[in-house]
Amino acid sequence: MNHMDNSFTYQPATDRYNRMQYKYCGKSGLQLPLISLGLWHNFGSVDDFTVATDMIKYAFDQGITHFDLANNYGPVPGSAETNFGRILKENFQGYRDEMIISSKAGHEMWAGPYGGNSSRKNLMASINQSLRRTGLEYFDIFYSHRYDGVTPVEETIQTLIDIVKQGKALYIGISKYPPEQARIAYEMMTKAGVPCLISQYRYSMFDRAVEAETLPLAAEYGSGFIAFSPLAQGLLTDKYLNGIPEGSRAARSSGFLQRSQVTPEKIEAARQLNEIARLRGQTLAEMALAWILKDERVTSVIVGASSVNQLADNLKALEHLDFTPDDLAEIEQILARMI
Questions:
Q1: Are the CB atoms for 121 and 86 separated by under 8 Å?
Q2: CA torsion angle for 125, 26, 200, 280 (degrees, to 10)?
Q3: Which residue intervals define the domain NADP-dependent oxidoreductase in the entry (predicted)?
Q4: What element of type H or E holds 127?
Q5: Dihedrals φ, ψ of 160, to 5°?
Q6: Which end of the chain has fewer beta carbons closer than 10 Å to its terminal beta carbon, N or C?
Q7: How do the domains of the chain map onto residue ranges?
């Protein structure tokens, strides 16, 4: 596919899948691509639909089979699912069984007391809405997007189990659960014969909280693990090496990356990491993705993209996944100084 050309012909399946590496998800028979495409940003109603379409087509043509949604992705909330459903209908007739499509519920989605927690009421309404928006008969994976701190874990997990038994999802997962609640979830799913396929958490060189308990716990229960925000909202790219550029996420008054998070320590660490990446023949972003994938417990990383070219650059991480002991030791020293 020509990145600047709207015309598109799908590559033969053998070519498509030879471009990607796949890994079994925990103790399951399901393989996921090492790099998955997330629709958190850039696929909503405020975004360019043609660009979004081109990115999904290109991703699929490069062997990315897993597309990660949530009911509240947009903006406006719900519009990423609606757009994705339209893209599927217009471009992927006959390819559904070659795709893993996931969605989630649990964050604020609609007004009132039932639109943004982890109750049975919210999850059941949410998956029905998400199926309608996407036009799908089922999701391959459906997650509880968060532990809300109020709803008993047992209520949330029983709902996920019922969703599988009702045929609305093939597999279930959890996202951002504290270890104590995650253990309860894993135990309950296992006893019900619907084990937790996958656990989704924030993980990057700049956010390693999951290494202490979350990653080992997922592995203990045979759950796969998928990392979101692997580039720390752009901090682990060359974008912020010289400060905060105009038009970047951190330059905006609202958003998930605030100016206060772009600290001098992180900028300096990114510069030093960038030098290691350069010596490895990679960009900083490519190395940051490879660094997460080096852990055998990690199944996949979710990347976001605003263009086909950006997605193509991220996929280059797969060309150099190995690290020397010296590389790893130097990276650890840089990250330790940042703390």
A1: no
A2: -150
A3: 35-335
A4: helix 120-134
A5: -60, -45
A6: C
A7: 13-238+285-319
DSSP string, 218-280: HHHTT-EEEEE-TTGGGTTSGGGTTS--TTSGGGSSSSSS-GGGS-HHHHHHHHHHHHHHHHH
Q: Are 19 and 64 in contact (CB under 8 A)?
A: no
- Tokens read off for 194: 């619907």
Paired tokens of 277: 């990446």
Cβ contacts of 80 within 8 Å, gap of 6 or more = 39, 40, 43, 44, 69, 70, 73, 74
In sequence order, what are the residues at sequence separation of 6 or more whose Cβ sits closer than 8 angstroms to the Cβ of residue 228?
A: 38, 40, 68, 200, 201, 202, 203, 301, 302
CATH fold of 13-238+285-319, please? TIM Barrel (3.20.20)
Answer whether residue 4 shows pLDDT above 90.
no
Hey, what amino acid is at 156? T
CB 206 within 8 A of CB 178: no
Task: State how far the alpha carbon of 276 is from the alpha carbons of 89, 209, 270, 288, in Å.
Answer: 44, 23, 10, 11
pLDDT tens digits along 154-187: 999 999 999 999 999 999 999 999 999 999 999 9
Alpha carbon distance 263, 79 (integer Å) = 33
* Cα–Cα distance measured from residue 174 to residue 156, given in angstroms and rounded to the nearest whole number: 10
CB atoms within 10 A of CB 275: 13
Tens of pLDDT, residue by residue over 257-285, are 545 567 888 899 999 999 999 999 999 99
Number of Cβ within 10 Å of residue 80's Cβ equals 29
